[in-house]
User: Fold this.
Amino acid sequence: MKIFVFISMFVLLVACSNPINNIIGKWKLESIDYSPYFAEVSEEIKGIFLEKMENQTKRMIGKTFFEFKLDNSMLLESPNFENEIVSVEGSWNYNQTEDSVIFELDGKEHYRISTMTANRLVLSTDESPKRILSFSKIR
Assistant:
């Protein structure tokens, strides 16, 4: 009986340490940091896009949700320009080294995983515009 309990606990520990288990669930977008993008553009370009990006960020924060499912499907819910919530279905996968996640929504987007715990997820991308997304897990 002790061996059965030990094996069960070991299997549970290994399963819980798998990074795929951390990402599964529904995540709320908490912030978008465009500073990597603005660090590389001219002041003129920064002036043109800063207000637009700030307005877009304000519209999305707290109202945008990413749901990652075990079957590698995903659902993105976010307000459009009329502040109506729009849902987009897609898929997600880890890269081979599991240090990045790839979203397939309207096209492929690659994000490096900076932080992934049971309750916090931080992703960054070098795709234009470069940005850092921070999430909190809601379920």
Summary: Residues 1-17 have pLDDT under 50 and may be disordered. The longest strand covers residues 85-94. The chain is about 30% helix and 40% strand. Residues 43-60 form the longest helix (18 residues).
